[in-house]
Specification:
Layout: H1 2-11, H2 14-58, H3 68-75, E1 82-85, E2 91-95, H4 99-102, H5 105-118, E3 122-125, E4 131-136, H6 140-205, H7 211-233, E5 241-244, H8 245-257, E6 264-268, E7 277-280, H9 282-300, E8 304-312, E9 316-323, H10 351-362, E10 366-373, E11 377-387
Parallel strand pairs: 6-8
Antiparallel strand pairs: 1-2, 1-4, 3-4, 5-7, 7-11, 8-9, 9-11, 10-11
Helix pairs in contact: 2-6, 6-7, 8-9, 9-10
Length: about 400
């Protein structure tokens, strides 16, 4: 049933979805207005009945407020709570009022004040000159009708919220399927040229040429094969195993050191401290570190410093990547991890978004900007659970 409903939503155009939402709001608003109108009419009727009864008592010859038969008549089929007192506020009769209130002076006074706020005081001047006060409230039916519109409003709000979340979830799932399909297709398309490059690399190794250049080409090709593997893993079940975090990050740092501009230095403390382990997927975790290092290099614009530091406690391992680049405005600390957000003139704004998903969804860790200042630099921290 739910899948069929989601399929119907997917087939609706944006305009039709908005039309349905507007139609639902109009129906809810009409229902609220009708209930409100009916509540006011019932309130006026109850007030009229009480005033009519008070007027009848005023003209009833020989009426006694304490007469059991008279009290039975006014209470018969009447769900309006009331208190009748003399001019000294001594209770002469009551209906639908708890005895604990009638017998407690303070609570009785509070109840009389509450009735006075709800409805105007009625004076009953009966035959013979006796005068009484009639304080009355609202019937249980009227009280329920007063509450009902708020319940309706709450249900309408819940309906709209669920509708919005369903649409958003549907759209999000559609986007996920598109990106997963694109990633896997990219991996598939890269498979043929990388296989061909491997063959050419083996051929170059057998030729009388500078083998140091061939070795560097081999490293780049190995990196390219890792990229293909990463794209193929998008959307697939990710296996995590305990690995040495120092070594994995160190490999990425060494790779970027040989390819960074000459005026850029990359520091790393991981090889000088005791090894620490975490449950990670090596291929995807390397992707995160490389994304962060590449962003740091872009921020430096050919000159500056990057420091990669590992720290840890009993529960977590923290990797801080700090650069001396152009910095990030504080208002963008969270936005930089949103898909499509970028401050570069070129780029899709997906690197940090993918990094966030890999860290938080696949590795159950955290990634955030810990500090940044315009023209002074940025520090981004990745935290994962430590395996002791």
């Amino acid at each position: 049933m739910k899948l069929a409903f989601l399929k119907i939503l997917q087939n609706l155009s944006f305009r039709n979805r908005i039309t349905i939402i507007i139609f639902g709001v109009l129906i809810g608003s009409s229902s609220l207005f009708f209930t409100w109108h009916m509540t006011n009419e019932l309130k006026d009727k109850e007030r009229y009945d009480v005033e009519l009864w008070a007027l009848a008592m005023k003209h009833a010859e020989g009426y006694d407020i304490n007469d059991p038969i008279s009290l039975h008549i006014i209470k018969k089929n009447n769900n309006i709570p009331f208190i009748i007192t003399d001019l000294n506020l001594k209770v002469k009769a009551s209906h639908l009022i708890e005895s604990e209130i009638i017998n407690h002076p303070d609570r009785l006074r509070e109840q009389i004040e509450e009735f006075s706020h709800e409805n105007p005081l009625q004076l009953i001047s009966v035959y013979g000159g006796a005068t009484y006060y009639l304080f009355y409230g609202e019937s249980s039916l009227l009280t329920r009708l007063f509450i009902f519109p708020y319940i309706q409003l709450f249900l309408i709000t819940i309906f709209i919220l669920l509708w919005y979340l369903t649409l958003r979830s549907t759209k999000h799932n559609e986007q996920d399927r598109v990106w997963v399909g694109l990633a896997k297709e990219t991996a598939h398309q890269l498979g043929t040229p990388t296989s061909s490059l491997l063959g050419w690399l083996e051929y170059l190794k057998s030729q009388p040429i500078d083998q140091s250049a061939v070795e560097e080409m081999g490293k780049d090709l190995t990196r390219l094969l890792k990229v293909v593997d990463r794209f193929s893993k998008i959307g697939s079940e990710t296996s995590l195993i305990p690995l040495n975090v120092n070594e994995i990050i160190g490999n990425s740092v060494l790779y970027f050191r040989t390819r960074a501009p000459k005026n850029v230095t990359i520091g790393y403390n991981g090889l000088a401290i005791a090894p620490v382990q975490a449950n990670i997927n090596e291929t995807l975790f390397e992707w995160v570190i490389e994304n962060l290092l590449k962003n740091a290099l872009d921020a430096l614009q050919g000159r500056g410093q990057i420091n990669v530091n590992i720290s840890y406690d009993n529960e977590n391992i923290h990797i801080d990547i700090k650069d001396t680049g152009k910095g990030i405005a504080q208002s963008n600390f969270k936005k930089i991890f949103e898909p499509g957000f970028t401050t570069k003139t070129r780029g899709w704004g997906l690197g940090l978004s993918l990094s966030k998903r890999i860290v938080e969804e696949y590795h159950k860790g955290k990634i955030s900007v810990t500090e940044s200042e315009i023209e002074k630099g940025t520090t981004i921290r990745v935290s994962v659970k430590r395996v002791v």
